[in-house]
């Protein structure tokens, strides 16, 4: 298996917020915390597009780079997780994240000393897989149950794809080829470092002309 | 008196040596393919077998997300 990734197909997203509801319900996320949300681009303008946004579990995660207490870690499948027993709630990760994923609850079980909370790709945390302690701190560990993230599995139009990067990319590619449009994947390049379709190659200052 | 105070200062200075090391770092997390200790584990794969776990996720992902393969 390569690594876990999210893709949101903007051609299919109907802004129903089913992914947001599924996430909140699955992990019993408290009021005021949204691990996932739906963002509408060019809202009100004909041709507006909606995308579902959460932690993208970046290849080179900026949150990991800036954390002063090194509470983040990456699983073998590329899922970026954190240890709430180490997090000090400083908020640096929130400033570093290009997707606005880190959340800072102020009450309830998640809110102990304002520790950061974010999407776990339904992979829990460092506590024992499927334990009550893990559920209370991080929510359900669906990956360890042989399931994919609840947001993607509940998506009514299958706009949100989650799973092995190669697999979701293949599904998306097949769709684009059949409908012959909508190849843009917002956030993919930022999170995983590859260029989006139709994007010009980046110019490097001072590069020699060949 | 001088020797006693020197002894006390040395003893006080050495107390730091008895402190536990405060190392940073996350706890070891169990791999996802090792399974979960609850009753919600999906049937069709065996916990601890990485290949069967990967196959389970691939099958579930294709069946649940690739509607082109279900309704061509």
What's the shape of chain A?
Answer: globular
Strand order of the largest sheet of chain A: 1-6
DSSP strand (E) fraction of chain B?
under 5%
Q: How many distinct domains of chain A?
A: 1
E-strand count of chain A: 6
Q: Indicate the multimeric state.
A: heterodimer
Poorly predicted ranges of chain A: none
Quickly count the helices of chain B.
3
List the helices and strands and how they pair.
The complex is a heterodimer of chains A (210) and B (72).
Chain A: E1 4-8, H1 18-27, E2 37-41, E3 49-53, H2 62-66, E4 72-74, E5 80-82, H3 92-96, H4 132-138, H5 150-154, E6 160-164, H6 165-179, H7 188-192
Chain B: H1 2-14, H2 50-65, H3 67-70
Task: Pick out its properties.
heterodimer; A: 210 residues; alpha+beta; Alpha-Beta Plaits; two-stranded antiparallel ribbon; two-stranded antiparallel sheet; 6 strands; 12% strand; globular; B: 72 residues; mainly alpha; 3 helices
What report would you give on this structure?
The complex is a heterodimer of chains A (210) and B (72). Chain A has 210 residues and is an alpha+beta fold. Chain A has one domain (4-192): Alpha-Beta Plaits. Chain A contains seven helices and six strands; from the N terminus they run E-H-E-E-H-E-E-H-H-H-E-H-H. In chain A, the strands form three sheets. A two-stranded antiparallel sheet of chain A has the order 1-6. Chain A has a two-stranded antiparallel ribbon with strand order 2-3. In chain A, strand 2 (37-41) and strand 3 (49-53) form a beta hairpin. The longest helix of chain A has 15 residues, at 165-179. The radius of gyration of chain A is 18 Å and the shape is globular. Chain A starts with a strand and ends in an 18-residue tail after the last helix. The mean pLDDT of chain A is 89. Chain B has 72 residues and is an all-alpha fold. The longest helix of chain B is centred in the last third of the chain and has 16 residues, at 50-65. Chain B has three helices and no strands. The chains are: A alpha+beta (210), B mainly alpha (72). Chains A and B meet through strand 6 and helix 6 of A and helix 2 of B.
């Amino acid at each position: 298996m390569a690594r876990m990734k999210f893709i949101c197909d903007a051609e299919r997203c109907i802004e129903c917020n089913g992914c947001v509801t599924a996430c909140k319900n699955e992990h019993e996320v408290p009021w005021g915390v949204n691990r996932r949300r739906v963002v509408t681009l060019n809202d009100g303008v004909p041709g507006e597009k909606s995308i579902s946004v959460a932690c993208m579990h970046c290849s080179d995660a900026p949150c990991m780079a800036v954390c002063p207490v090194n509470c983040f870690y990456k699983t073998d499948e590329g899922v970026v997780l954190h240890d709430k027993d180490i997090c000090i709630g400083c908020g640096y990760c929130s400033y570093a994240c290009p997707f606005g994923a880190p959340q800072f609850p102020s009450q309830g079980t998640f809110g102990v000393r304002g520790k950061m909370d974010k999407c776990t790709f339904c992979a829990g945390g460092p506590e024992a897989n499927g334990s009550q302690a893990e559920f209370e701190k991080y929510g359900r560990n669906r990956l360890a149950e042989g399931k994919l993230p609840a947001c993607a599995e509940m998506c009514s139009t299958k706009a949100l794809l989650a799973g092995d990067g190669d697999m979701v990319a293949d599904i998306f590619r097949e769709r684009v080829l059949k409908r012959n449009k909508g190849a843009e994947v917002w956030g993919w390049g930022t999170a995983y470092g590859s260029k989006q379709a139709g994007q010009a190659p980046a110019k490097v200052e001072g590069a020699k002309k060949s | 008196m001088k020797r006693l105070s020197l002894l006390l200062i040395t003893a006080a200075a050495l107390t730091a040596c008895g402190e536990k090391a405060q190392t940073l770092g996350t706890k070891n997390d169990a791999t996802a393919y090792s399974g979960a200790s609850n009753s919600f584990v999906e049937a069709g794969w065996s916990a601890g077998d990485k290949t069967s776990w990967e196959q389970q996720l691939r099958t579930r992902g294709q069946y649940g997300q690739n509607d082109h393969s279900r309704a061509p």
